[in-house]
Amino acid sequence: MLRDLAGSGSASEATLEMLTVSERALGEDAAAVAVYDQLILRFPTSNRHWRYRAVRAWLELRQGTLDRAKEILTGADLGAAATPSAVHYVTAWIRFRSGDMAGAHAQSVIASQTWSDLASWDALRNEVYLFGAFAGAKPEYMLQVLDDLIEGPPRREQGTVKVRTKTVVKGGKRTDVTEESVISYSRSWETVSLGKAYLRAGRTEDAATIITRGLGDKPFTSGRAELVLANIADLTARPLDATAHLEAAAAHLAGADVSNSAGDTTDMKQELASSTLALARGYRAFFTVTGVRSYADAASKLYALYATLPARADAADVAREATLLGEVRQVATPSDYRAAVVDGWTGRTALLDACVERTLQADPTSGGAIIVAAHSSADGKLTLDSLQPEAGEQGLAAIAACVRDRVLGWRMPWPTPTGGVSLTVKFHAALR
Question: Under DSSP, is residue 391 helix (H, G, I), strand (E, B) or coil?
């Protein structure tokens, strides 16, 4: 309906604004551009005219058309007090993309100081962080941008009470409810947000440099920083460092003040639990394949950490995994671990050889290829999936039966990753 009104050319300014919100929420940037063009053309004297131009220029920036974005904002009075902050904001980005870092920095300061709506300021902050990360800006530069943003609306509004009235429908009755909340702000929270933007851009070293600045402010934000640092350590193959960061996160979150952000704290603790278990299982699986001791040590510590967290439905299964890992870790060195695996299977294949030889002694004509498919459970027990002569081979039924009897009930000489391991073996039965 809104699109029909816009197409008629008679829609009001308010209607067109509503349509821009709808189109952008749906990701229809091209449709939003057409509506903003209408707003700019039809309402040149509106007190929101330059705001429309700013958003229109921003949409051009998203498409990579820098010159067109500059053209749209040509004539903006950047020195006027009434100039919308959105104009300063988009101008900062235009200068940033043009390589004018100093100009972009100065303009972003003006934007942050004049923005009156905290939610809009949040959008500015997040988008600037992301652009800085993906555009290759150095951490020191973006940290300075952060410091300047801190001097903007959050400084002026922090500690003030924000009142919001909303309508609640219960039992068929509509009731207006007034909510009050205190605007709070944390430098370390924003520092971690900036670091996460760099992490999403694949710049792990810069992300770690930035996020480290977010430690030591408050237990909650420090716990959040440690969770991200654990992720970075895991991405850079440092299992023991990742484990240490998760242990530190648990210590911080255990002492976090939940009075103002109970929901956030609960979510963060859930993230801690899921990250701890995921890394424990991942490191355990990696150790079972490679025998690298540091991964076993890290997994053991993570299982122990998980056991200290609030009880969960999978607690019994996880405890069992930890026990199995403990059995494997009794092997002194990776070379001993490898020997255990090789020697274990050497013994198994010897049993198969004996089985085949006995059968062939009774019927020398029954030789040929046999294919064995099996899988192991998490505790290492081997289960036979199929056992068959290869196509065209005959007379192997007795050997197949013998093999089946030997395989059933076997256990791998070491615990296997969650979900087990599938294996297929083909061998040729023949007299020596």
Answer: coil
**Whole-number average pLDDT of the chain:** 71
Distance CA 12, CA 21 (A): 15
Say which residues have a Cβ less than 8 Å from residue 38's Cβ, sequence separation at least 6. Answer: 6, 9, 11, 16
- Rounded Cα gap, residues 296 and 327, in angstroms: 11
The secondary structure element, H or E, covering residue 162 is strand 161-170
Q: How many residues does the chain have?
A: 432
Give the pLDDT band (50/70/90) at residue 195: confident
What is the distance between the alpha carbons of residues 182 and 162, in angstroms, rounded to a whole number?
6
DSSP letters of 285-338?
A: HHHHHH--HHHHHHHHHHHHHHHHSPP-TTHHHHHHHHHHHHHHTTS-SHHHHH
Could you tell me which residue, 230 or 132, shows the higher pLDDT?
A: 230
Helix (H) or strand (E) holding 383: strand 382-389
- Predicted pLDDT of residue 244: 94
- 3-state SS class at 382: strand
pLDDT tier for residue 229 given thresholds of 50, 70 and 90? very high
How many CB atoms sit inside 10 A of residue 80's CB? 10
Asked whether the beta carbons of 371 and 388 are under 8 A apart, the reply is: yes
Work out the pLDDT band at 240, boundaries 50, 70, 90: very high
SS3 sequence of 201-259: CCCHHHHHHHHHCCCCCCHHHHHHHHHHHHHHHHHCCCHHHHHHHHHHHHHHHHCCCCC
CATH code for the domain defined by 1-151:
1.25.40.10
pLDDT of 227 > 70? The answer is yes
